[in-house]
Amino acid sequence: MNPYDFKTIEKKWQEIWDKKGIFAADDKSKRPKAYVLDMFPYPSGAGLHVGHPRGYIGTDVIARFMKMKGYNVLHPMGWDAFGLPAENYAIKTGIHPEISTKENIQRFKKQMNLIGLSYDWSREVNTSDPEYYKWTQWIFLLLFKKGLAYQAVLPINWCPSCKTGLANEEVVNGKCERCGTEVTKKNIRQWVLKITAYSQQLLDGLENLDWPEKIKEMQRNWIGKSEGADIDFQVKDSDVKIKVFTTRPDTIFGATFLVLAPEHPLLSQIVSKEKLEEVRQYQEETKKKLDVDRQLEDKEKTGVFIGSYAINPASGKEIPIYVADYVLPYYGYGAIMAVPAHDQRDMEFAKKYGLETIQVIQSGKELKEAYIGEGSLMNSKEFDNLDSLKAQKEIVSWLKKKKLGDFAVNYKLRDWVFSRQRYWGEPIPLVFCPNCKEKIESKKYKKNEFNIGEISNPGWIALEEKDLPLTLPEIDKFQPTGTGESPLAEVSYWVNTKCPKCGGEAKRETNTMPQWAGSCWYFIRYADPNNKEEIIDKNKARKWLPVDFYIGGAEHAVLHLLYSRFWIKALKEEKVISFDEPFLKLRTIGLILAPDGQKMSKSRGNVINPDDIIKEYGADAFRIYEMFMGPFDQPISWDTKSIMGAKRFLDKVYAVSCSIADVSSKKTEKLLHKTIKKVTEDIQEQKFNTAIASMMEFINNIDQICFDDFRRFLKLLSVFAPHISEELYKPESSIFNESWPEYDKKIVIDEKIEIAVQVNGKLRDTIFVNLDSDEEEVKNIALQSEKIQKYIEGEMKKTIFVKNKLINFVI
RNA sequence: GCCGAAGUGGCGGAAUGGCAGACGCACAACACUUAAAAUGUUGCGAGCUUUUGCUCAUGAGGGUUCGACUCCCUCCUUCGGCACCA
Fold it and tell me: With contact defined as beta carbons under 8 Å apart, do A342 and A426 qualify?
């Protein structure tokens, strides 16, 4: 048997597809649309390894399948091209990120084309292209004007030696990845987006999405809704009230102290003179700690009494106020009422500092550990003996009447820190104008002169749409400034500008946007990539959006998918688009690990390059193997040996094409229809591995096949192995312009079927019976079997009969 | 610690209440060949058995059921995610 010449065939068809534009999405077609999308990659310097294409091939199978099913398919690809590695590479080598990024994109594209992926390259987008990021900036301004952007001073990871801010991934074990210095915190002015304004909507929106339950659950946990109460604690001898959130207002009589986070804003007002120094020192200590350290598992609790007391609004008792780092500033109000009897952390803290413990829920046993369950109340005055769930409602209502508290909902979700002190990102299109600042602060401005964003961030003025894109200035020094600011801050000709509102002297914002910005909305742009007037034409938006099928790594379960959903909800409110969830159906890919079971990475030296595999076995064999190796959503180790199986299968298909008969045998015909059924169903459930297995069975078991039937088989194969299928199909234009084969229900059915005969649930024989035989008929045949007779001695208690499956005699 | 997923031949996996191991890899024997490779044919969970066949076997133990890889309980292991969340 001659192996087929994949090199020639694959190159030939890739060129034909490209020339004829077979896979271009048609803006004018009346056919129903299917938008099939990959998560676009960051074009790293390392190129693709064999793990990346798994998702791309899966998406490609679906896109080609949908096309043959009669859909007008949109299947684009692009580049998430801003990001840290390109900038770090520039710092090291002086090569401009734009240049290295362009080179990387070339390489990625070449590798993708070798695989034969059916992308519509006419719609390619690149997030670092000014024509693209013009619209990223446009969306930012829309959010800003809507009041969804605000400034805050927040700590960033800071390397005191490199004098630069660090991303979380650049901090390894609390040390700077580059120089090994201990990382500390530095407060920096940041832009923050109010994603929390959409907490409930983001939670509710998950309901109707066809996403893996696991991913939905992760988003729910991330949003972290909890219901409880806000309660005010009056500070003794002061006007200050400390607000806390609690999920257990029923335990309020057991609240014997308050704990504030070291970052709590009211701390300085209520700390006593004697304790001032001690508290300040504790705050400093906390600053040195990284979140990681602060959250270490069995770390001993630390804290400081601040010398002041608060009044428990229920019991009226005076309770001490502490500051401790186990209370986090971001969650709730950065302050808790501590109930040592019913919260383990509070109990540990109380034991260490000798604080009072009052049990208020009956637990039925001695309290060695905090009792966190439900029960009847005790030590709670008029609420005694009330069930804790009921007591929650009554106590909050009672506090509400006294104006000391109210029912409240709290979310774990935090607002999104949106600025980066970096060069290689989208410039934030704002200027700071002292003149306008004064105008806003003195309220001497006309109605509609300033937008909501400008009024709530005095001095910060939005660029006008006609001035977008605000492009990155060319620089050749990418080194960090040492002050924590972006390298852009050094480019004075760029920074100093005129205010678009008043024409006065102004300075540009030098922070840039995070990498997520471009990926929040790229799928919108694919529908209308070259539009210079609008972000997207309304008709095209209606035609293509939202995404019907989205495939990517589970590592994006929370951030990318959540941020993107947030932007879409805001854009819908502004009527830019008319859908409120971007990705209707989502499926995740299992990681491909190196043969050693480790993650593939350059540093481990275990990377397998798809180019080498394709050179040796061909793109079709590579594609078949990637889809055959195991369930699509499970992680799996690469095994180059096993690809031989895929190659042999294709060689066999090729051999069949050389011995075509005039008519197919009955056996072959039946098998063909069964295979069509199985492959169709499996593709719809992304069970690509079993779809391929059934095609292998088909090829292994046919005896005599005619060209028409062989072509039907090739259609099934074509979505997985497109090149060889095109070649053998001998098409007019392309096999992908043909329609997906249908199977005949009558042919699929077997008239005689084999069923299992069991005695006491153990298999003893199998017999052939007519399809749909009834119990009596099967019983008669089964009892004739000698094997069965051997086992049937004594009284038959009952017979279990499952039509077309089995008969079981219970003795 | 919590949440989630998973555990099946030498290996990747199939079967999600009804004949465990489809399909593939590796391996072995045979055929073709001067030879090797490639290809083809056959075999391939373990034990007992001359064959027929029998017994055991899906991480461990228990349970439900006529019947359990599949459902329930306890435990072990691995992988992922989250982690002092008030």
Answer: no
Q: Which nucleotide is nearest to A645 (CA to C1')?
A: B24
At position A347, the amino acid (one-letter code) is M
Closest nucleotide C1' to the C-alpha of A412: B85
- Picking from A557, A602, A474, A405, the residue whose alpha carbon sits closest to that of residue A130 is A474
Give the three-state DSSP class for A544: helix
Chain B nucleotides with an atom closer than 7 Å to a protein C-beta = 1, 3-5, 11-15, 18-20, 22-26, 38-40, 53-55, 66-68, 79-86
A467: number of Cβ within 10 Å: 12
Rounded (5°) CA angle A771-A772-A777: 100
Does an H or E element contain A187, and which? strand A184-193
Q: State mean pLDDT over A739-748.
A: 92
- Between CA A340 and CA A351 the distance in angstroms is 9
* ipTM summary value: 0.92
What's this model's pTM, rounded to 2 decimal places? 0.91
Tell me if residue A435 falls in helix, strand or coil: helix
CA dist A79 and A515 (Å) reads 11
pLDDT score, position A1: 44
Q: How far apart are the first and last CA of chain A?
A: 56
User: Between the CA of A716 and the C1' of B8, what is the distance in angstroms?
Assistant: 30
Q: Give SS3 for A710.
A: helix
d(CA A250, CA A386) in angstroms, rounded, equals 10
What is the torsional sign of CA A715, A716, A717, A720?
positive
- Angle of helix A213-223 relative to helix A559-573, nearest 10 degrees, comes to 70
Segment A601-615 mean pLDDT: 85
Residue located via tokens 């009921």: A390
Residue among A573, A518, A575, A577 nearest A545 (CA)? A577
Taking the CA of residue A789 and the C1' sugar atom of nucleotide B49, their distance in angstroms comes to: 22
Name the residue with tokens 């009952």.
A798
Distance CA A704, CA A1 (A): 17
Q: What pLDDT band is residue A491 in, cutting at 50, 70 and 90?
A: very high
A168 vs A176: CA distance, rounded Å: 10
Distance between the alpha carbon (CA) of A693 and the C1' atom of B48, Å = 35
Under DSSP, the state recorded for A25 is -
Q: Where are the alpha helices (DSSP H) in A155-301?
A: 199-205, 213-223, 267-270, 276-288, 291-294
Q: Is the pLDDT of residue A296 over 60?
A: no
| pLDDT at residue A323 is higher than 70 | yes
